Automatic annotation (TrEMBL):
Entry GO MF terms: protein serine/threonine phosphatase activity
Family in the record: Belongs to the PPP phosphatase family.
One Gene Ontology term, aspect cellular component: cytoplasm
Name the record gives this protein: Serine/threonine-protein phosphatase
Protein source organism: Caenorhabditis briggsae
Catalytic activity: O-phospho-L-threonyl-[protein] + H2O = L-threonyl-[protein] + phosphate
PROSITE patterns in alphabetical order: SER_THR_PHOSPHATASE (PS00125)
Residue ranges constituting the Serine/threonine specific protein phosphatases domain according to the UniProt record: 182-187
Bias type Polar residues, positions: 113-126
Catalytic-site annotation from UniProt: 186 (proton donor/acceptor)
Length: 381
């Protein structure tokens, strides 16, 4: 069955989105970041992405294979570097098409191995173990691209929060089933007004554009369930969440409250010193212990929680005998931490491979003297 023919209006929107993707992939540099887009273009992108993301449920139901990434915090160079290493949500043919259209040139066929879930790293990512008992229900296929779930905190701290959000939502619009975005606690006016995003947008453009971004964040989903087995969110579990159907009662657009289920999903942290729940030093939500986590998993018939929200030295960290994984994807966070970044790759048998990213100098491919970061071939447990 052939794909439905696009209307002239749909073709115009697709061309608009493709131009944004191409510019960020092949024309963006630190020195030209102010020159690629006008405020009206970015406002329109936010409006159109908002319509698409708002149509998704507040709790996403996702299939494998999929890669899960944590906080990015405006580190656009590192996002590009991680995709260069682990695989883009675009095929090689699509990347070449964007390059040809953007740079008006042709690229020789790539001689590198095709990106595939088992071969995301030359050294061969090893399983984290403990989640490979589920039988393979369908043949694993090489998609030619990677599918991604992002756990929030795209903005603040880093210098290029706008580029991170713009590229992610543009690819989301072009390929809706390849990229999914959850809401973090920094996708909130009360937080990003103080930690950099508001200053970045108003310095580069104006306060009106900041409102378009805020309206976009207010419709983001809060959590995702992968294969009815793994629950993903930015923060942590909630004592008040009795079943998943309860989430449908929350209507978007919505600001993140200080307490309650939505606050827990964006703010809560695991704490090995408590058994169940205790007040959080963050001033919002709570911390939870191993007993609370086990009760939560049993209540919702889940096996694992994947969350972000905390800097962890190796880019990932286990809690309660691997019932929970924290993943953090902003390496050398704030330029003051010597942390790695992590990417969790979940295959169709629910085996989890952890790719660890240590930033280095990215190869000069298209950008002259300007270099970005690159991921060396390294995988940790």
């Amino acid at each position: 069955m052939s794909a439905p023919k696009l209307t002239d209006s749909q073709k115009k929107v697709r061309g608009f989105v493709n131009r944004i993707i191409g510019k960020l992939m092949f024309k963006w540099k630190h020195t030209t970041s102010m020159e690629l887009f006008c405020a009206a273009e970015l406002a329109e992108l936010c409006i159109r992405a908002r319509e698409l993301i708002w149509a998704e449920p507040i709790c996403l139901k996702l299939e494998t294979p999929i890669c899960v990434m944590g906080d990015l915090h405006g580190q656009f160079d590192d996002l590009l570097g991680m995709w260069d290493s682990n695989g883009w949500p675009l095929t090689e043919k699509e990347r070449n098409w964007f390059m040809e259209k953007t740079l008006k040139t042709k690229r020789m066929p790539c001689t590198e191995p095709k990106s595939s879930q088992p071969d995301s790293n030359p050294n061969g990512p090893r399983s984290s173990g403990g989640w490979d008992e589920k039988p393979v229900l369908k043949e694993v296929k090489d998609l030619g691209y990677k599918r991604y779930l992002f756990l929030g905190d795209y903005v603040d701290r880093g210098m290029y929060s706008m580029e991170v959000v713009i590229l992610l939502i543009a690819i989301k619009m072009a390929y809706p089933d390849r990229l999914y975005m959850l809401r973090g606690n920094h996708e909130s006016r009360s937080v990003n007004c103080h930690y950099g995003f508001y200053r970045e947008v108003t310095r580069r453009y104006d306060a009106k554009l900041y409102e378009y971004f805020s309206d976009l964040f207010n419709v983001f989903p809060f959590c995702a369930i992968i294969e009815d087995t793994i629950m993903c969110m930015h923060g942590g579990i909630s004592e008040q969440l009795m079943n998943l159907s309860q989430l449908a009662l929350y209507k978007r657009p919505v600001e993140i409250p200080d307490m309650g289920v939505l606050a827990d999903l964006t703010w809560a942290d695991p704490d090995p010193t408590v058994k169940r729940y205790a007040p959080s030093s963050r001033g919002a939500s709570s911390v939870f212990g191993s007993q609370a986590l086990r009760e939560f998993l049993k209540r919702l018939n889940l096996r694992l929680v994947i969350r972000a929200h905390q800097v962890v030295e190796d880019g990932y960290e286990f809690f309660d005998n691997r019932r929970l994984i924290t993943v953090f994807s902003a390496p050398n966070y704030c330029g003051q931490n010597d942390n790695s970044a992590g990417i969790l790759c979940i295959d169709q048998s629910l085996k989890i491979s952890i790719v660890v990213y240590r930033p280095m100098v990215r190869d000069r491919k298209f950008f002259g003297k300007e270099k970005r970061t690159k991921v060396p071939a390294k995988v940790n447990e």
